[in-house]
Amino acid sequence: MKFNQKHYTSSSPLRLASVVAMLLMPVTVFGQELGEPLTGTEILPETVQIEHSNFGRCALRNTGDVFCWEREFSVDNTFENSFSDVTAFSKLNEALNNDIASITLDSIHLCGIGRVSGVACVFVDQPRINRFAELQSPPEPDASYLSISDLIAIDSSVVCAIQIDNRVVCWGERDTNSASVLDVPPEAAFLQQLDLLTHRACGIDLNNALVCWGRPLPQPDGGDRLFGDVDIATIGQVKQISLGRVGACIIDIDDKLECFGRIEGYTDILSDQSFSSIEVDDFHLCFETTNGQKDCLVLPPSESSAESVIPPGIDARLFSPSFGDVCYVTTDEVMNCTQFGDLPDQNQFPSAPQNLTLDLFSETQGELIWARPSQNASTDEFATGYEIFRDGVFIARLPVVTSYIDSSTNPDANYEVRATRGLIAGTSAFINADGSNDPLIPMEPSPLAPTTPTMPSDGSGEIGLTGTVYSSTALELFYNNVQGGSSRTRFNILRDGIVIRENSPATSQFQAGLDTNTTYQYEVQAVLDGNIISTDTVSLTTFDDGSGSVTPVSDVNVILSAAVYSSSALELFWNRASVANVTYNIFRDGELVRQNSAAISQFERQLTPNETFQYEVVALLDGEEVASSTIEIDTSTGTVSEPIPSGAQPPSTGPEQGDLGPIELTGVVYSATALELMWERAVIPGVIYNILRDGAIIRADTPAISQFQSGLLPNTRYLFTVIPFLNGIEQVSETIELSTRSL
Questions:
Q1: Virtual torsion, Cα 206, 209, 212, 213, nearest 10 deg
Q2: Once rounded to an integer, what is the mean pLDDT over residues 129-142?
Q3: Could you give the CA distance from residue 476 to residue 501 in angstroms, rounded to a whole number?
């Protein structure tokens, strides 16, 4: 609940609050790495101040740091970037050493004071919104402060703070409107408490007298909008004052409430109560009485009655009135917000998944299944993902799916499935593996059998998952290569039940650094419009490194086949050798086109149309040619000859250092914070790439032909460069400029 005296001391009867607003920016500001549990409703029990605006929510914790999250979900956002630190709270935490006493901000400026000392203001780098750099330069940033006022931001932004000796300091944007507040008169140089509203400021001096300065707010029919016809000199001694657009309220020296302007009716309506704190905003009067009662009433009063915005029976411990609604945290540590007009209430954490069940396939294999409470982004129940906990330990973060296969369960396991919206975790559903839900245990375990959901008519659910093992430590998955998929289809990749890539538009996944002679089980989930439409699995085993063994040459052969896709494109296929350390050279019409490759296919395009080509694939074991096969392909008729096994044909010429063609760098922007670079696979083998963003290397020495980037800034231009290297020599690079979308 926000009141104007904001310094927290051991004798303070109530934690005081101020107005906070939030916008969208990238998720990386939270410092969350994939695999860490999110921060969500667990922050509420340790929250001493909540603030909100029409953009978002903020919580000041008893640990002294601020945590903020977005209110509304944008359709342009993805699972990775849907919530962020647009109020720059991480910057404020850093500036005040995570030891903050109180905060205040307008739509893009966030200010705070430290518990011991310090004052700081930061602003969000958000386009199309005015930022006032003067706020970032408080006159005495290292002094000790008792309290900080609201920010006012009508035509400018101004904030005031009261130092430990009660001296008032104001700073911000100076213009004809704000100068009247920034120029503090001598009678207001030392105050106990103050409040700001547009171009007006009022405070309480050391003699408990009311002092106001700046431009009065006139009413259309004359008089002062805040105080009506009342002369403030006649008000008497005051403990606290709060200013709103339709009037002002004070707590007098006897703890009684007196209101002025259009809300003067509350003076009589609440005359039988004593007050310890008040706050007036545009639409509400929130208060705490001396006996601990808290409530928020609608402004102005309805004739002689007071209408509460808090539902009956709700016991709230924290309030935040702002922008037409009120958010509150109950004594049961549940956060809710009222609604204003026709706007949906999106202030609650996302609701728990429904109908959670657990099917055990064996003592170590099981599947969790649940239902989404709502798929409507304008409701509190809307979720963008889920977290899975087993026996209290975080094991997986998922996009918007409705099932999860756990290959490491146990008969005594208990699970928690928690809904998330971006980086904000909501409430959870729980289930135990003790038979309470009578899970079916089949006779034959089938832990990762592909599902058969309803398939879209366009064939986008056909995954066609395959895999190629390149070495004892590297392999690659390929999928969605059977049927043309929808452009909206995304893929989740899991290895041994753990998500390794989420919501990706890519149709391949390269894996390096794996264990030697190890079997891995991969699952790929096709996701269309937030729903899993198909899954497929494959098991791949990395090669034995062959240490201390000799492989018979007779164990290596080449079984060659091919497919013609068009008059200028085709693909070769051959068998994977049953032994390790086998690589291949590929020749087209006697010319080497790929050398010493571990792949078992070769895609060729941009060939001379309607020609006949002769291809030879030569197998090499430890660098020695041991087998080969030749095939003829006619692209005009699409015919492929029977393969002809033959002796190995050593290359007559090798790749030259200048032979690498253009990499044809392209890019796709997915959202305000995510994009992907793509380039052509080099025909000459052994090429690796360095990827740079704005001149800085973000990935080095990679054989990949794409680079996905997330956590970028909205509406920002980036310069990406891809530099190929062949045999350690830098080749011709390409650069592309990409701009992320606006929010």
A1: -50
A2: 82
A3: 13
Tell whether 95 and 186 lie within a shared domain. Answer: yes
Whether 32 and 118 map to the same domain: the answer is yes
Token representation of residue 702: 């990679």
The separation between CA 506 and the C-alpha centre of its own chain, rounded to angstroms, equals 20
The answer to whether 161 touches 123, Cβ cutoff 8 Å, is: no
Q: Are residues 391 and 273 in the same domain?
A: no
Q: In total, how many domains does the chain have? A: 5
What residue numbers bound the domain in which 515 lies?
A: 466-541
pLDDT recorded at residue 141: 93
Is there a single domain that holds both residue 474 and residue 559?
A: no
What's the CATH number where 405 sits?
2.60.40.10
- Asked whether residue 316 falls in the same domain as residue 390, the answer is no
Residues of the chain above pLDDT 90, percent:
20
194 in a domain, yes or no?
A: yes
The CA-atom distances, in angstroms, between 8 and each of 35, 65, 68 are: 36, 14, 20
Residue 10: predicted pLDDT: 29
Candidate from 251-265, 278-292, 425-439 with smallest mean pLDDT: 425-439
Is 448 domain-assigned? no
For the chain, the straight-line distance linking the first and the last C-alpha, in angstroms and rounded, comes to 30
520 vs 683, more confident: 520
Q: Note the pLDDT tens digit of each residue in 649-693.
A: 333 333 444 556 678 888 888 777 778 888 876 666 677 888 999
What own/partner pairs with CB < 8 Å and gap ≥ 24 does 114-122 have?
114/145, 115/8, 115/64, 116/144, 117/142, 117/143, 117/144, 117/145, 118/142, 118/143, 118/145, 119/143, 119/145, 119/148, 119/161, 120/92, 120/95, 120/96, 121/159, 122/88, 122/91, 122/92, 122/95
Cα 62 to Cα 543: distance, rounded to the nearest angstrom: 54
Q: Is the same domain home to 382 and 279? A: no
| Eight-class DSSP state of 434 | S
> What is the 3 state secondary structure string of 682-718?
CCCCCEEEEEEECCEEEEEEECCCEEEECCCCCCCEE
Report d(CA 78, CA 488) in Å as an integer: 12
